[in-house]
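Typical record is below.
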Amino acid sequence: MAFLDILNLYRFLLFLLKVSNFLFILMPPMLMYLFRQYSRQVNGGVNIVWLLLVVVGVCSAYFHATLSLVGQLLDELAIIWVIMMALSLWFPRRFYPASLNGDR
């Protein structure tokens, strides 16, 4: 009986992973539309972050579908790209190293 419970839990978790991947693929285009005024007036680079979140969703779906090392590396690399892009956009200039002279 315990084996069936574990199997059902595994299937449920796989279902949740698929749903979360679809959310990563479907939500960023909607957010691009909702944040278009912010993109025009404050920082247009936010659209790159939304696009990279779609890449995270696609790479994560590939990884969870194949469970391959290449898929895992793509998934991790896409997440690192999003983090680095967000840091480059929203990191305060006063904390930049002196060698950059306060410029990106």
